[in-house]
Amino acid sequence: MDLNCKTSVGNYMMSMTYQKTPLEIDRAFEGQVRALQSSCRGFDEGEEWEAPRIASAIHILCHDAGRTTSLLTQKGVRNSIDFVTTVMPLNPNNLMVSHDLVGITMGGARNGYFAFLGDGPFLRTVNFNRWWKQEKIAAGPQMSWSLTRKELIASVRNQDGGGHVDAQLSNDAYVKLSRTAHWIYEQDGQPPQNMMGLEHFSVRQIGWELEESLRRASLI
Q1: Average pLDDT of the residues of the chain
Q2: What gap in Å lies between CA 112 and CA 95, rounded to an integer?
Q3: Does residue 2 lie in a domain region?
Q4: Which of 84-93, 128-137, 182-191 has the lowest mean pLDDT?
Q5: Which letter does DSSP use for residue 15 in this model?
Q6: Domain range for residue 105?
Q7: Domains held by the chain: number
Q8: Which long-range contacts (CB under 8 A, 24 or more apart) does 110-119 make?
Q9: What is the pTM of this model?
Q10: Which residues make Cβ contacts (< 8 Å) with residue 59, sequence separation at least 6?
Q11: Cα gap 99→91, rounded to integer Å
């Protein structure tokens, strides 16, 4: 009798669902924003390995798919606020790789990519769907391949270190962005060096855009 009673209670507990309160959602949102900010600070201090953790926080805040609901959607604000974009419409005739989220620095203390943050040459606001799913944030010569923010964040978060490390990468455009040396630099007679990390600095810039968007909407 007692054993059956415990089994019944156990089964009931396993099948029970719990609806989080608005306060719990707000606390989760605050936690992910703080995680985003902390990882962005670490990245800016030279810890490039923070990029996948930035991508993970962005994913939790923004991504809706199937049974996954973003924190911005759970708060009811994802489609009602303006999102800051620092990307110009890409030129389909460009014969070189396009990466408007990221600049290049040469000849100083360091050579390589950098995120524009708030100092980019182009800034405006768009709705969420355009910011997340439609705008191309990087592309190959003559648009031979391209990536949206959603696609970039998904690849970094799901397969390249954010929440998972897969043996294979499935998005060919992401492979071209992240595993190809698009630029090569030489300095002080040293052998030519491949410039890598474009995907990480792109993620950092998206993190800045998201944080700035939330700040303008008085959500942080």
Answers
A1: 91
A2: 21
A3: no
A4: 182-191
A5: H
A6: 21-216
A7: 1
A8: 111/185, 111/187, 111/193, 111/195, 112/185, 112/195, 112/197, 113/195, 113/197, 113/198, 113/201, 114/201, 115/201, 115/202, 115/204, 115/205, 115/208, 116/86, 116/205, 117/205, 117/208, 118/208, 118/212
A9: 0.90
A10: 153, 154, 157, 162, 163
A11: 11
- Please tell me the distance from the alpha carbon of residue 47 to that of residue 41, in angstroms, as a whole number: 9
Helix 198-216 vs helix 172-179: crossing angle, to nearest 10: 110
In a domain, 11, yes or no: no
Q: Is there a domain that residue 7 lies in?
A: no
Rama region for 210: left / alpha / beta (φ>0; ψ in -120 to 50; rest): alpha
102 φ/ψ angles, rounded to the nearest 5 degrees: -135, 140
Angle, helix 51-62 to helix 22-44, in steps of 10 degrees: 150
Amino acid letter for position 123: L
Q: What is the mean pLDDT of residues 135-151?
A: 97
Buried-exposed string 15-37: b where 16+ CB fall within 10 A, e elsewhere: eeeeeeeeeeeeebbeebbebbe
Grouping H, G, I as helix, E, B as strand and the rest as coil, residue 174 is: helix
Predicted confidence (pLDDT) at residue 213 exceeds the cutoff of 90: yes
Look at residue 11 in the predicted model and tell me its pLDDT.
55
Q: State residue 184's pLDDT score.
A: 84
Instruction: Return the pLDDT at 64.
Output: 95
Q: Within a domain: residue 5?
A: no
